[in-house]
Each structure stands twice: as structure tokens, then as C-alpha cells.
Amino acid sequence: MHTRNERLGRPVPRRWTDLAADLARDLGTGTGSLLAHADLHYGNVLAGHRQPWLAVDPKAVSGDPEHSVPELMWTRLDEAVGPAGVRTLLDTIVGAAELDAGKARGWAIVRAIDYWLWGLDVGLTEDPLRCRRLVEALTAT
Which residues are designated catalytic? Predict the structure, then answer.
């Protein structure tokens, strides 16, 4: 993460890349043995017949279910008003899915910074700004 950030001209403040690196280390050591959907967003959730809801187009990773929270946040971020609205969005997702709030926040920060840097690297313009907004809200005191 630090190397990519340097190569791209340090668009992400160092305090955030340091935080993301620390969180990734902490979260990575305690990941569970569950399968998480690494591309879980509202377009990949359908009403079903066997179950009320079905997640489709899985991109499975082994780990915490909290790993899937960032995509759910990114696709609803425009509805969140201000940093408090972003934190409320996280709280709503965590509460509805009965997730660990600390892990969900941590994964959201790690994955938002990773996506921010990836997006800049491939020429995206809007998504990196959304990632910045998400990280700003989740790191505000």
C-alpha cells in the first residue's frame, strides 16, 4: 500500500496508509474460516424463492463477513449526509447483519484505501473521491 501510494504521488495521507496497514495486519491474523462475498453490493442481492434473499455473482474470499461491508457502503454513500450519515450507514449495515462493528469499520478503511489507490492507478476519477469521503468519515473523531 505504501509503495503504491508513493508511486502515485502520495494521494492518500500517510496517517491513513499507516492506519490501513496496521488494521490489515490486525484483521488478517484473526480472519475466520467463513467464505465472504468480496463483491457484495445491492445489484448482487436478489429476492429469492428458496430464501428471502440471494447473493449472486460471488467473488469468494476466506475470512470475516465484515470484509463485505465496504461495497455495501460504496453503493449507498451518496445517500449518507455528512460524516455522521456515513457512520450511520455503517451502523445500519452492522446492526442488520449482526456483524462486529470494529471489524466492519477496519475492513471498510483498509479496502477503501486499497480501492482508492487501485482506482487512481487505472484512471478512475469518481471512485477515489468516494473512498476518500468514506475514510474521512470513519477516521473522524
Answer: 39
